[in-house]
Specification:
Elements: H1 3-16, H2 22-34, H3 36-58, H4 62-67, H5 69-92, H6 99-106, H7 110-122, H8 127-134, H9 145-175, H10 180-207
Helix pairs in contact: 1-9, 2-3, 2-7, 2-9, 2-10, 3-7, 3-8, 3-9, 5-7, 5-10
Length: about 210
């Protein structure tokens, strides 16, 4: 793979990531509610799912997943329902500052935050098909497949991680400056982000 091809690929990925999707909205929500450092677990969950989806694409499983309509529907709508539930719960629990509430937020297990990120990304299993369609555009038949595949995968994960970190840092910075009633509304907005992420996943399910 030449530097020119890699640059075009990076520019393509940058363009694709310029519009926030469900994972970015979840990162905004969790970072504002739990802080930037803890929200990195959410980003790690999202990137873990992406890595598995890329591996599935590389192993040639995209065609199998694409033909499994029932499995796609179950995974998609389970993810939609999960995000809606999280969003509603966050909105209902939004209260003015109190020590107990802050402790409860800090005590949310990192594994739960990781699972939220993983399930949100995994709820769009057609990402496997997306990667299977995207990568061949930048892979040369004159060179070994796997080294090129790993470069493309690592580039995507690093760029996605940077985007998620930027979203999280922005949300955390804003949350640190809101107190009392303003903080309640910020948490409600965060819950609304989560519900909006679910709607985006639902629309993807309907439009296929």
């Amino acid at each position: 793979m030449t530097l020119e091809i890699w640059t075009i690929y990076a520019a393509t990925v940058l363009a694709l990531m310029s519009t926030p999707g469900p994972s970015q909205l979840l990162m905004l929500s969790n970072s504002s509610a739990h802080g930037l450092r803890r929200s990195f677990s959410t980003a790690a969950g999202d990137l873990s799912a992406n890595a598995l989806q890329m591996l599935a694409a590389g192993l040639g499983l995209a065609a199998i997943i694409a033909t499994s309509g029932a499995a796609l529907a179950i995974i998609k709508w389970a993810g939609v329902a999960y995000l809606i539930w999280l969003g509603i719960r966050m909105i209902r629990k939004a209260k003015p500052d109190d020590p107990g509430g802050r402790v409860a937020q800090r005590n949310v297990p990192l594994g739960n935050l990781w699972a939220q990120g993983f399930l949100t990304s995994a709820a769009n299993p057609k990402a496997v098909v997306f990667f299977a369609a995207l990568f061949p555009q930048f892979i040369s038949a004159d060179h070994s497949f796997w080294p090129q595949f790993l470069i493309l995968s690592a580039t995507y994960i690093i760029m996605d991680g940077l985007f998620l970190s930027a979203y999280g840092a922005g949300a955390s910075w804003i949350a640190a400056r809101f107190k009392g009633t303003a903080k309640v509304w910020l948490e409600r907005i965060g819950g609304s982000f989560m519900i909006f992420a679910a709607i985006l996943l639902g629309l993807k399910s309907v439009s296929r």
